[in-house]
Write a structure and sequence with these properties.
alpha/beta, Aldehyde Dehydrogenase, Chain A, domain 1, Aldehyde Dehydrogenase, Chain A, domain 2, seven-stranded mixed sheet, five-stranded parallel sheet, 16 helices, binds nicotinamide-adenine-dinucleotide, oxidoreductase, Aldehyde dehydrogenase, Ald_DH_N, Aldehyde_DH_dom
Length: about 500
């Protein structure tokens, strides 16, 4: 890993591409409008970014449809498509430090998380998904001797992808890798808070040999480009990661337009259950990482902690010690464990929820309201609030920041009921050394993902996604490919 000064020096040499990427080239928004991309650690301007709207989306969809119809990508020999995607992954690896810096500067994530998690996981996502291209077969249905029914996987056509800012490169990769591998054309709308790595990714796709128009990136501020994409009559599938509020709007837009299929990876308020028979030190370390990693700006952050009453005191002492590992600092320093919040509005959200927790009777045992100094970055403090319960606003609502609510329970049934008492169902963790309890509780948790004696671990082979208001469909694994194909059957009477 490079040193702090080496990362600082390299960050000075970076060039940022802020224009839209349509039909294989950078271009300004049709309106000529831009919006600023700000480094949240310094509040300084990185670059101005094209503010795309419906006109740019129309252009991008037209190009994407045209190239889809031409077959240049959709009908390319699977082995060749695989080779292009593998070359693309190689290019990302070649520029891995640049990608690490782009997201760190653009949204404040620590450089060590970028180097150890986001960039290698993104590369793995492209490589693994590329390998699927010539390994997933169609089927023959058992219809009898006088007919032949062939079931094939067809690309859907034009895919719109809308992504959030918390894992900019990785969330984009989870969407576009399977969509492209399946032979589709893609229009990507990255978050306005972190569009830079997506634009560079598109440039490298062309360098790898992807035909023009197959991958287009239309950055846009607020809902402008995203809404136009979601309402577009010629987009077949919309794949979204972001808040539950916007996810609901996308379902409406789909209904108002062409009934495009909508896949949603939405918000979360994940519970973490610590039973009295847990390894307390490991559980405390896991609980701290589960809320403070990436400044708590993690959809699967376990922001609701439920501790069995009999070990609460001992556990809290261990938790407070583990929390001290997380200190906000310059994200370019490899030793930094927590960067700034993505922007001033996210910092204000964190402050608002800490105040509401206090107003409703919560007891702040670590951290507290942020002490913002103008021009010095949007830094929050890792915060633990005890005396919490499910009736409190900050326990019910997603904060998306480093604020942990600590509640207690007395029985296994109560722990399960408290964990499931949420509109969300994304992730859940539980800590116990009792194997039967681990299975019993995992089965009962209303959650797309459950971690036992760990938190947040995953693999490209493992699906990622939630239930209830956390969404539908899955990113990663072969299940991700299912979102971007149509099943077709051809029946022949012999
Ligand atoms: P957001 O919903 O505000 O924005 C997500 C994307 O939607 C952005 O690109 C944004 O510009 C766009 N958008 C906003 N309004 C739109 C509209 N009306 N029409 C179309 N597009 C619109 O979410 P965010 O603040 O970027 O990200 C944080 C949220 O993402 C959290 O709720 C978090 O839990 C969630 N998230 C979920 C997962 C998951 O896998 N389930 C992963 C990461 C983040």
């Amino acid at each position: 890993m490079k040193s702090y000064s080496e990362w600082q020096a390299q960050s000075e040499t970076l060039t940022f591409h802020g224009q839209a990427y349509i039909n294989g080239q950078f271009q300004p928004a049709v309106s000529g409008e831009t919006f600023p991309s700000i480094n949240p650690a310094t509040e300084k301007l990185l670059t101005n970014v094209a503010s795309c709207d419906a006109a740019d989306v129309d252009l991008a969809v037209d190009c994407a449809r045209e190239v889809f119809k031409s077959g240049a990508w959709s009908e390319m020999h699977p082995r060749q498509r695989k080779q292009i995607m593998q070359k693309w992954a190689d290019l990302i690896e070649l520029h891995k430090d640049e990608f690490a810096l782009l997201d760190t500067l653009d949204m404040g994530k620590s450089i060590s998380e970028m180097v150890n998690i986001d960039v290698p996981d993104a590369i793995d996502c492209f490589r693994w998904t590329a390998e699927c291209i010539d390994k997933v077969y169609g089927e023959i249905a058992p219809t009898g001797e006088d007919t032949l029914a062939m079931i094939s996987h067809e690309p859907v056509g034009v895919v719109g992808a809308i992504t959030p800012w918390n894992y900019p490169l990785l969330m984009v990769s989870w969407k576009i890798a399977p969509a492209l591998a399946a032979g589709n054309s893609v229009i990507l709308k990255p978050s306005e808070k972190s569009p830079l790595s997506a634009l560079r990714l598109a440039e490298l796709a062309s360098e790898a040999g992807m035909p023009d128009g197959v991958l287009n990136v239309v950055p846009g501020f607020g809902h402008t480009a995203g809404k136009a994409l979601a309402l577009h009559m010629d987009v077949n599938v919309l794949a979204f990661t972001g808040s539950t509020r916007v996810a609901g709007m996308l379902m409406e837009y789909a209904g108002q337009s062409n009934m495009k299929r909508v896949w949603l990876e939405a918000g979360g308020k994940s519970p973490n259950l610590v039973f009295a028979d847990a390894d307390i030190k490991k559980a405390a370390a896991g609980a701290a990482s589960a809320i403070f990693a990436n400044q708590g700006e993690v959809c699967i952050a376990c922001s609701r902690l439920y501790v069995e009453k009999s070990i609460k005191e001992e556990f809290m002492a261990a938790l407070v010690e583990e929390a001290s590992r997380f200190q906000a600092g310059d994200p370019l320093d490899p030793k930094t464990t927590m960067g700034p919040m993505v922007d001033g509005s996210q910092l204000a959200t964190v402050e608002r929820y800490i105040r509401s927790a206090q107003d409703e009777g919560g007891h702040v045992v670590v951290g507290g309201v942020p002490e913002y100094k103008e021009g010095k970055g949007y830094f929050a403090k890792p915060t633990i609030v005890d005396n919490a319960h499910n009736g409190m606003t900050f326990v019910k609502e997603e904060i998306f920041g480093p604020v942990l609510a600590v509640c207690e329970f007395e029985t296994e049934e109560e722990a399960i009921a408290l964990a499931n008492d949420s509109i969300y169902g994304l992730g859940a963790a539980l800590w116990t050394q009792n194997l039967s309890r681990a299975h019993r509780v995992s089965r009962k948790l209303e959650s797309g993902m459950v971690w036992v004696n760990t938190w947040g671990e995953g693999d490209t082979t493992v699906p990622f996604g939630g239930v209830k208001a956390s969404g539908n469909g899955r990113d990663k694994s072969l299940h991700a490919l299912e979102k971007y194909i149509d099943i077709k059957n051809v029946l022949i009477r012999l």
